[in-house]
Structure formats: C-alpha cells, structure tokens
Design brief:
This protein is α+β, with helices and mostly antiparallel strands. It has 9 helices and 8 strands.
C-alpha cells in the first residue's frame, strides 16, 4: 500500500497539473452559466407576469437568451480545457451540410413560428380555419400549432403552412354574425317577409341590436325568391343564437302564412316517335 508521502505527492502533482487548473476554471464557468440562466429566467418571468410583453414573446426571448448564455459558457469552458474548437467545427462542417439539407423544412417552420409569435395573429383559445382544417388553438410552438377539432381530435399544423396560406380567425372579435340563406314563395309579399324577419330579430335575446341586422335580396331562383339575412351575436353564443334564430323564423313564417317552397321541376314529355324501318324491309320493298 502507498504510504502517506506518496499520496501527498500525488495530490500535489494533481493540484499543480495544468489540466486540473483548466477543469476548475471550466467548472467555474458552468456555475456562472447556471446562475446567469436562473437570473435571466426570473427577470423575464417577472416581466411576463407584469404583462409588459406578450407571454409567447417572453417565453421565446427567455429560451433564446439562455441558449446564447450556454453557448458562450460551453465554448469558453472547452477553450480553457485546451480543446480546439476549430478542428471540431471543421470536422462537423461536412456533417452540418448534410444535416442542413435534411433540416430545411424544420428551419422554415422555426422561422415561420417566430414570425407567427411576433405578429400575434392567433393565440391559444382562438377558433381558426386553415385550408380544410379548423378547430380551437390549444398550443403554439416554434414548429407547429395544435388544433382541437369539434370531435375532440387534435390536428398538428406546421407553422410554414400558416405563413403561406390564409388563416381565418373566427373568434378574433367579440361579435360574430349569424348568416342564414332562405327562400320564400313567389306569391309572398316581400315587405311582409321583411317585417316578420325584423320582428324575429327583436325577439331574440342572443341577437345584438348594434350592429343592425341585415336583410338582403339574393336572387330570383327557380322555385323561390332567395334572401340573405345576417344578425350579430356574441362569439361564444354563435351556435346557440343561430339555432334559435332559425327555429324562430320557421315558427313565424308558419304563423304568418309565408311559404318556404320545395324545389319545383316541370317535365315536358314528347310522344314516342315511330321506329325507323329495318334494312331488310327496305330491300324487300325494292324487290316488290
């Protein structure tokens, strides 16, 4: 077994070794990185709670600053330990080119996500429509957003698609318009129809008086005179207000004798034409 003098000599050599000094400095840098990251996180959290900046922008800014801090800390720690970063980066350059080609879509989604967060086009809880997908926004990330559809299924939409295609934010305003298309009989008095519709609007508690509801002529159709009506309601009451409005219109029309006609088609039947003579009959007639 080594005696105490050998142990002390080994410890003294370890203490005076250049690598020990480098490792200690690297550990100090790492501790500084942890402290600075925590300070940045607490400062930005307090700013977000005070609502000085939007929550999404604050979260993105916090992640970016912490990433930069750790990039500097790790770089300096490796440099103090004598690791040549130039050779490492050079060796990683070839792999970086291949990875760069493979990650073009991801990078495009990240950039699109940054623009989406800064523009504040949508937020969590909004009901949006993107192409043929629509639902409530449950999560917004750098790469994608998540929509919860009416059947409770989740749809992931890449941020790149949100930048390239139009986004319909249905619930961005506190008011939403209930649009209905209906047709009345050609024998109907349009002034009476208008009066009945306005009376129904006034009776509906979920329908707003301001903005004023609209009644517009649409077209002279084959079987009916088509009208387009629109009334405003609170966004959260949309489905209930639209259902109640349709039911009240149907009841009022029946009470006032206003007919919503079924489609009518007129068919003209011609008499069957006599069959064409057969070729053998023509030949027999010629012989006779």
């Amino acid at each position: 077994m080594p005696d105490m003098d050998e142990i002390l000599n080994s410890l003294d050599e370890l203490r005076t070794h250049p690598m020990t000094h480098a490792v200690l400095i690297a550990l100090i840098f790492l501790c500084i990185g942890i402290v600075v990251s925590k300070i940045i996180g607490r400062i930005l959290d307090s700013i977000i709670r005070a609502k000085r900046i939007p929550k999404r922008v604050g979260i993105l800014l916090r992640k970016t600053l912490i990433f930069i801090v750790w990039l500097i800390v790790v770089t300096q720690a490796l440099h103090m330990m004598g690791i040549n970063l130039v050779s490492i980066l050079g060796a990683a350059g070839v792999a970086g080119v291949a990875i760069g080609f493979a990650s073009q879509t991801a990078l495009s989604n990240i950039i699109s996500g940054v623009f989406l967060l800064t523009e504040r086009t949508i937020k969590v809880g909004d009901y949006v429509r993107v192409n043929d997908q629509e639902g409530t926004v449950t999560e917004i990330k750098l790469l994608s957003i998540t929509l919860r559809k009416a059947d409770n299924s989740l749809v992931r939409v890449p941020c790149e698609m949100l930048i390239k295609t139009p986004i319909v934010n249905i619930t961005s305003s506190p008011l939403r318009r209930c649009d209905l298309d209906l047709g009345v009989d050609y024998a109907s008095d349009l002034m009476q129809v208008r009066r009945v519709i306005l009376d129904v609007f006034r009776e509906q508690q979920l329908i707003a008086n301001d903005p004023v509801p609209a009644i517009q002529f649409s077209s002279f159709a084959d079987s009916s005179i088509n009208l387009h009506i629109g009334a405003w309601c609170k966004t959260e009451d949309y489905h209930a207000a639209r259902y109640a409005l349709a039911n009240a219109l149907l009841v009022a029309f029946r009470r006032e004798g206003i007919n919503i006609p079924f489609p009518v088609r007129t068919l003209l039947m011609q008499e069957a034409a006599s069959p064409a003579p057969k070729p053998q009959d023509e030949a027999a007639k010629g012989v006779a």
